[in-house]
Design goal:
The complex is a heterodimer of chains A (459) and B (494).
Chain A (H helix, E strand, L loop, with lengths): L1 H18 L6 H17 L17 H24 L7 H20 L3 H19 L6 H32 L4 H10 L4 H17 L8 H8 L2 H26 L4 H25 L3 H17 L9 H30 L10 H4 L1 H15 L5 H13 L4 H26 L14 H19 L2 H6 L3
Chain B lengths: L1 H17 L5 H22 L11 E7 L7 E6 L1 H20 L9 H19 L3 H10 L1 H11 L5 H30 L4 H5 L5 H18 L8 H8 L2 H26 L7 H23 L3 H29 L5 H31 L10 H4 L1 H15 L5 H16 L3 H24 L5 H4 L7 H19 L2 H19 L1
Antiparallel strand pairs in B: 1-2
Helix pairs in contact in B: 1-2, 1-4, 2-3, 2-4, 3-4, 3-11, 3-14, 3-21, 4-5, 4-6, 4-11, 5-7, 6-7, 7-9, 7-10, 9-11, 10-11, 10-13, 11-13, 11-14, 11-21, 12-13, 12-18, 13-14, 13-17, 13-18, 13-21, 14-16, 14-17, 14-20, 14-21, 16-18, 16-20, 17-18, 17-20
The chains are: A mainly alpha (459), B mainly alpha (494).
């Protein structure tokens, strides 16, 4: 919980820097706060916070996921300087909103009570609705915001209704009590209804098909940096919460929901990858790719064992690194070209080889090519799900096979076109180069030596 | 020793990437030659007739991951040694063959070739399922970039995408096949994979999952769609890597992984289906090669035909062994032929490249009369051609002979179709030679023709020497692969 306090103070400070017209410092305050929070997350939790354990338990797993999200948010903050340089007027709000959203994520990592879960989801989402619309003059951004908000509100309704039904049948919000109930009465009708409603709401948040309809429009409309945040940190938070609530609270009734989840995963894997093939816009393609990754992640529910949380963390970290790697290039291209079609990337390898390489490595990691982090991540999940859900793994492999085609499209645009469409005067900043090198090294290092991930995050 | 072989191409590739200079090709070829001599040195240390059961030498075992049951386990037996020799002899020659290109190859091109070599050495020495898969895919990225960046201007994007998607999809199925076995064996260690205790149905499923990857890479008849285009529109060096070495990964994979992991599948229809498909490929490839006029396509289809025969031989012996008649002749023939085909096809593609540059067309109908202008070339081309046809005293003969013998043992009807390969190969290869080398040709073009340069001569001559030496003294190769094949085939017997 000390992480939460540090993040909250940072967010407030960043917000107030804008009030006193010092918005340009908000990013530095944020980076500093995130670094402090990262240090704090490595130290053991203060005994004082033990009294909140029935609502909020910052245990080992929560710490692991918090560290991952902090690292990814830090990367995104570093990219922010260039991405938001024409947002002079309200920069501080954006950074503090991102931090508030991150607070929601940390709450989601450590909830032990459905009320905390609900709070976490709302704190995570409400800043996102605002941030998605932060390009005030852009129609698409406004559309994204409204669409996300309306759909999100609807999903929240489902979530609340589900929680209410569960409370009605079990008489408690506490996940351990609910778990005991589900083991004793796995087929209780009202209880299972509650699970289904919550499943829908969570599937919406992690964008599993057919509840993914919002994501392509929102991802495309929102400013690219916010999209990167949504695709990485928000995904980490929502998915771990999803996994935790299903596996911790509803484990007893697993037979009632696992098949439904399986169907959702199959639809997601096939639909998202097929739609991804049809895209001509890189940002929209990435949106579908993000949806498809929710499908691969969905395999984590099958054959779950003691390593599952670790596998999930690994996948999410690998995926988030790759997402940041692709989006940093997308931000750069979008700034120069004012569009993000595949055409806009032509000849990038000639003018900005480092950006092109980081994008290529990230995309190959998403596709699961060996020696990248994405390969080990996919291997972990496939090997786990193979026990009992071999058919789903087969579908996932077919999905991967489809996905490689659209990832290749972007790589081909960058590398295989000799004529460059970029002016030689425009060079990318030193920060971007450093982040690019960091991401390349991180993806390859974890891919070649997976135990590094364990060591780095103090497991 | 083996560490050096593995690391040298990787480090060399990094150096060449960093060395942004027009002289980078000399650095690259230097590294490749050092690698070649290292391999020869290793051959001199290699014990052909090991006394112990397991024929592995130069082993490396290092822990890799704390929770994935896989180790960095490398080692060399006769089969690996042969393919290492093939790789490390061909790569320097392939690099050398690019020296005369008019096209600007920069340091990245050579770095990618060395990276590819790293992957190939890894594939041929890995003794761990996951490690094998990793190296298998590592070879894909460099060759994709080589074919995509320096390939034919118009077609390269379409062709390379098709190639990548085909092979990647195949590999993914092998990946889940290996994971499936891993979950039963609880380890990726080769011997554990062999003893995974799968029942018959499971073995059939695993057989097809893993075979799909090899079938695409080889390629086996209905999955060959990517091959002719990729061979035709890649830069010549890319084609040489693909046809000379890369498809041998699949032959190696079939022997090292597929047959011992799923031996019972051979008894059922699976083995017969593979036999039929490969024999179909033999005839189909040869027939298409006869009617084509594009010189690169002719060689591509001839490669399809030859590979079909190798696979048929391997499976003929494997099926016989699984039925109780222990024999590994077919695999022996296939490995000899693997080596020979690697040398011959690289030589033929190089000859084709020289012809295309001289005549500025790929159509053999518009070529002619080159023999008069280029006697040196005509001789070397003929030697490589004879090797490819399997004429006695060339390297192609002994392999093809043993292969046909093993198929004959398997079934007397099948061998009739398999035997067509020799006749049909003579038809399309001699037709190719006649059209390009003899005849009058176009007056204006013939007057501009020149004989080959020194570099080209060195490359072709070294290949031709290997063709003849191996044709006259094949016993060394046969002996080399003997012990490892005995080991593999006795695990099929169960």
């Amino acid at each position: 919980m000390s992480v939460l306090v540090v993040l909250f103070l940072t967010a407030v400070l960043a917000l107030f820097s804008g009030v006193y017209n010092q918005g340009k410092f908000a990013r530095y305050i944020g980076i500093l706060g995130l670094l402090v929070a990262l240090c704090v997350s490595f130290s053991p939790e203060l005994a004082f916070f033990n009294q909140y354990k029935s609502m909020f338990d910052f245990n080992e797993n929560a710490a692991l996921f918090t560290k991952i999200s902090l690292v990814v948010t830090l990367l995104i903050f570093f990219l922010g300087g260039f991405a938001f340089n024409n947002h002079r007027s309200h920069q501080s709000e954006l950074y503090s909103l991102m931090l508030f959203s991150l607070i929601g994520a940390v709450i989601l990592f450590s909830f032990t009570n459905l009320v905390t879960l609900f709070l976490g989801i709302e704190i995570l989402s409400i800043p996102l609705y605002v941030m998605a619309g932060s390009n005030k003059t852009d129609l698409r951004s406004n559309e994204a915001s409204i669409k996300y908000f309306l759909m999100g509100a609807f999903a929240t309704g489902f979530l609340l209704f589900g929680i209410a039904l569960i409370y009605g049948s079990t008489g408690s919000f506490d996940v351990h009590v609910i778990n005991t109930f589900s083991v004793a009465n796995p087929k209780d009708l009202m209880f299972v209804m509650g699970i289904m409603l919550m499943l829908v709401a969570m599937a919406f948040k992690v964008s599993l098909a057919p509840f993914h309809m919002w994501s392509p429009d929102v991802y495309q409309g929102a400013p690219s940096l916010i999209t990167a945040f949504m695709a990485s940190v928000v995904k980490i938070a929502a998915f771990f919460a999803f996994f935790k609530v299903m596996n911790l609270a509803f484990a007893g009734s697993i037979k009632e929901w696992i098949n439904i989840l399986g169907v959702l995963v199959i639809i997601t894997l096939l639909l998202a990858n097929a739609m991804g093939l049809a895209q001509t816009n890189a940002k929209r393609m990435l949106a579908y790719s993000s949806v498809s990754h929710a499908g691969y992640l969905g395999l984590i529910f099958f054959g779950a064992n003691s390593l599952s949380v670790y596998n999930l963390a690994f996948y999410l970290f690998a995926y988030s690194l790759a997402t940041v790697g692709v989006f940093m290039t997308l931000i750069w291209v979008e700034k120069l070209k004012r569009e993000t079609s595949f055409e806009a990337f032509k000849g990038l390898a000639k003018s900005e080889p480092l950006l092109a390489v980081v994008t290529a490595v990230s995309l190959l990691s998403m596709a699961g090519i060996p020696l990248t982090a994405g390969f080990v991540a996919k291997f972990n999940i496939f090997a786990q799900a193979m026990n009992g859900a071999a058919f789903l793994v087969l579908i996932a492999v077919i999905g991967s096979a489809l996905s490689i085609a659209y990832y290749l499209k972007l790589i081909i645009s960058m590398f295989f076109h000799t004529e460059t469409t970029f002016k030689s005067s425009e060079k990318v900043s030193i920060t971007y180069n450093i982040i690019a090198v960091f991401i390349i090294v991180a993806i390859l290092a974890i891919g070649i030596y997976p135990d590094l991930f364990k060591v780095q995050f103090g497991l | 020793m083996l560490e050096a072989l593995l690391l040298l191409p990787l480090i060399g590739s990094g150096l060449v990437f960093a060395f942004r200079n027009s002289n980078s090709k000399y650095l690259a070829v230097g590294i490749a030659f050092v690698q070649m001599f290292l391999t020869f040195y290793m051959l001199s240390l290699f014990n052909n007739v090991p006394t112990v059961d397991s024929p592995l030498q130069f082993e490396i075992i290092k822990p890799w991951s704390s929770y994935i049951k896989s180790t960095l386990h490398f080692g060399v037996d006769g089969m690996s040694m042969l393919l290492l020799l093939l790789t490390n002899i061909l790569v320097p020659l392939i690099i050398l063959s690019s020296f005369n290109e008019n096209k600007k190859y920069n340091n990245n091109f050579y770095a990618l070739i060395l990276l590819m070599q790293f992957g190939l050495v890894g594939v041929f020495t890995a003794l761990d399922g996951l490690l094998f898969y990793v190296f298998w895919e590592v070879t894909l990225i460099p060759i994709w970039f080589i074919a995509g960046l320096w390939g034919d201007e118009e077609k390269r994007i379409k062709v390379t995408t098709k190639f990548f998607v085909y092979t990647f999809v195949g590999s993914l199925f092998m990946f889940i096949g290996l994971i499936y076995v891993y979950n039963h064996a609880a380890s990726f260690e080769l011997t554990d994979l062999y003893n995974a205790n799968l029942n018959e149905v499971q073995q059939v499923v695993v057989f097809w999952l893993i075979f799909l990857a090899f079938a695409v890479k080889l390629p086996i008849f209905p999955l060959h769609n990517w091959q002719p285009d990729t061979y035709t529109f890649s830069p010549t060096q890319g084609t040489m890597l693909l046809s000379g070495i890369m498809l041998k990964m699949a032959i190696y994979g079939v022997l090292r992984y597929l047959l011992p992991i799923a031996p019972t599948a051979l008894l059922g229809t699976s083995g017969q289906v593979v036999m039929i498909l490969s024999i179909l490929g033999v005839v189909y490839g040869a027939l298409i090669a006869i009617v084509h006029h594009d010189i690169k396509k002719i060689i591509a289809y001839s490669s399809l035909s030859h590979v079909g025969l190798m696979v048929a031989g391997i499976f003929a012996s494997a099926i016989l062994t699984a039925q109780g008649n222990f024999t590994f002749e077919g695999a022996q023939g296939a490995l000899v032929q693997t080596f020979a085909h690697g040398i011959n096809v690289v030589g033929l593609f190089y000859c084709a490249d020289i012809l295309i540059k001289q005549f500025k067309t790929r159509d053999i109908r518009q070529m002619g009369g080159y023999a008069k202008a280029a006697p040196k070339f005509a001789t070397l081309f003929m030697i490589l051609l004879l090797g490819s046809m399997g004429v006695p005293l060339t390297n192609g003969f002994i392999g093809e002979f043993i292969l046909l013998k093993s198929i004959f043992d398997y079934d007397k009807v099948v061998v009739v179709f398999a035997g067509l390969t020799i006749i049909l190969a003579a038809v399309y290869l001699l037709r190719m030679y006649g059209k390009t080398m003899f005849g009058t040709g176009d007056e204006r073009v013939v007057n501009t023709l020149k004989d080959i340069s020194n570099v080209e001569f060195v490359v072709l001559a070294s290949l031709a020497v290997v063709v003849i030496v191996l044709g006259v003294f094949p016993s060394g190769v046969l002996e080399m692969v003997n012990s490892s094949l005995k080991f593999i085939y006795s695990s099929i017997k169960g």
